[in-house]
Amino acid sequence: MIRGFRRLQGGGLRTEEIGLARLSARVARVARVARVALLAMPARVALVALVALVVTAGCTRAGPPSGPPPPADLPPPSTERPAPAPAPASSVDSVVSGAGAAGGEVEGRTGDAVREPRAGEPGAAPLPPLRLPSVPEVRGLWVVRTALLHPDSARAAVRRADEAGFNTILVQVRGRGDAYYRSAWEPRADPLGGQSVEYDPLALVIDEAHRRGLEVHAWVNVHVVASARMPPQSPDHLYWARPDVLAVPRALSEDLFALSPQDPRYVERLRDWTLLHEDRVEGIYTNPAHPDVQSHLERVVEDLVANYPLEGLHLDYIRYPSPDFDYSRASLEAFRSSIRAAGGSPELLGPAEAAWLNGAAHAYVDRFSLQWAEFRRDQVTQLMERLFRTARRTRPELVISAAVFAGADDAQNARYQPWEAWLRNGIVDAVAPMAYTDSDPVFRSQIERAVRAAGGARVWAGVGLYRNSFEGALEKARIAREAGTGGVVLFSYDWAVGPEGIRSARGDYLTRFSLGLWGPARAR
Fold first, then answer.
1. SS3 for 204?
2. How, if at all, do strands 284-285 and 312-316 pair?
3. Which residues are CB-contacts of 195 (< 8 A; sequence separation ≥ 6)?
4. How confident is the model at residue 522 (pLDDT cuts 50, 70, 90)?
5. Which DSSP symbol is given to 102?
6. Which of 340, 352, 379, 494 could form a disulfide with 289 if both were Cys (CB 3.0 to 4.6 A apart)?
7. What pLDDT score was predicted for residue 70?
């Protein structure tokens, strides 16, 4: 039973309905294409051919044919992180104007959300003390969830990391609003369907890692919760059960503003838009400003860290996808309420309210663009602080980190992820700037700025292997060490051990990288 989100009737198409719709569409396409050829055949031959075409259409899956499965100890390739989009203009106002309570039962409410004092503000509860890893230098690997699909590949990930001299693995246990562990709040990940229900990927990884002396950080994708290409199968997944908490791009907001989220067309339009803009957004996101989203994520984190002997919690996608989001009705109503509660002159509020009452969904966000940007930053920061407090209260020894956009201005102004302020205010122990560039000067600038924000020990430099030659990636890691960071994390394990990684390193990528950076001793 998924308790975190109450399932609403009519919240989306059932899996079997989706399958029937896709089958019908596929048969129709085949029939149209074959019509001319069939008409030219004798009647009996044409009938046989048509039956064969329909059967083929119903049995063939979309996409390229699958080849033989890879060895069990090699994870399938992953496309978890595409290259970051170019940084937008530096001005907050130009970015926005150009882009166009925990506990209790969840009731799907919208509108006003009580804002608790943030860290450092009067009335805020004291923050728990910061913690750093027990290892003298983080030598880390991001291990994408594809490595967890088979027990052998999960064991191999730990073994390869250990043998190459790494001491920390950040293993992805929440990929798309699902669980690669035993969760009380979210459905088991669809790709694990071929494994026994007794298989607990996270438990296996922790057992193997601790036996070898490695630290394990649970890597949680926070706001990206579904793939538009492969929607989740479980009707209890929030994609189907709670479409009202999904983030909406500005381009769809006026269309969806008057449409009930329980109308199947709501999620269909959101999915179709995302498919058309895969170069701009990684998938379907949740709305950071929705109080139910924040409460649910708090429960997910509490359940995860309470039940597994982890060394760390690593938060990814704790941000907005871009300035184009979130223009859902829930966010627009919450922002309107916050502006009206703050007061202001009738000359400013009057026209905005009149336009709103006349059906202008963007009346407030367009008139108060600077406050709109700050509102979105505050939602992400509020969640970061809630998860930090919850995780530290539940497991005091835990190290809490976040993967962040390496360009601090881009992160603050276009993703509403002010991680420099998080470091200063003590609501995260460490950040891993995803400095996925092939430029040494850009990498150096981004990492040195992060070090200046809070000291090197709280910065783990993220190196994008897929964006660099082997020698280029090694040089980035050397730059990070020279800058005084607390360590490096490579993205990603599955790329390094796959064919591209082997070609790039002309051999065992992880071992060659470790020897080149830390030397033959590789002391942990």
1. helix
2. unpaired
3. 149, 150, 151
4. low
5. -
6. 379
7. 53
- Buried b vs exposed e over 437-453: b needs ≥16 C-beta within 10 Å? beeeeebbebbbbbbeb
- Which of 107, 109, 115 lies closest to 341 in space, CA to CA? 115
Structure token pair of residue 135: 């290892």
The pTM assigned to this predicted structure is 0.81
Q: How confident is the model at residue 502 (pLDDT cuts 50, 70, 90)?
A: very high
Residue 246's φ and ψ, nearest 5 degrees, are -85, 145
Structure-token match 């969760």, residue found:
183
In this structure, what token pair is assigned to residue 59? 């049995």
* Strand, helix or coil for residue 99: coil
- Write the pLDDT tens digit of every residue in 260-276: 999 999 999 999 999 99
CA distances, 10 to each of 6, 225, 243, 261, 335 (Å) = 12, 20, 10, 9, 28
Instruction: Look at residue 400 and tell me whether its pLDDT is greater than 90.
Output: yes
Q: What integer best gives the mean pLDDT of the chain? A: 83
Rounded distance between C-alpha atoms, residue 502 and residue 492, angstroms: 13
Q: State how far the Cα of 433 lies from the Cα of 458, in Å rounded to an integer.
A: 11
Q: What is the mean pLDDT of residues 331-347?
A: 91
Is the pLDDT higher at 74 or at 304?
A: 304
Q: Are strands 215-221 and 312-316 parallel, antiparallel or unpaired?
A: parallel
CB of 317 closer than 8 Å to CB of 417: no
Q: Are 227 and 277 in contact (CB under 8 A)?
A: no
> For the residues of 265-294, what is the DSSP string, one character each?
HHHHHHHHHHHHTTTT--SEEB-TT-HHHH
Q: What is the 3-state secondary structure (H, E, C) of 417-448?
A: CCHHHHHHHCCCCEEEEEECCCCHHHHHHHHH
Q: Check: CB of residue 466 under 8 Å from CB of residue 491.
A: yes
pLDDT bracket for residue 403 (50, 70, 90)? very high
Do residues 15 and 231 make contact, with C-beta atoms less than 8 angstroms apart?
no
For residues 130 and 108, what is the distance between their CA atoms, to the nearest angstrom?
34
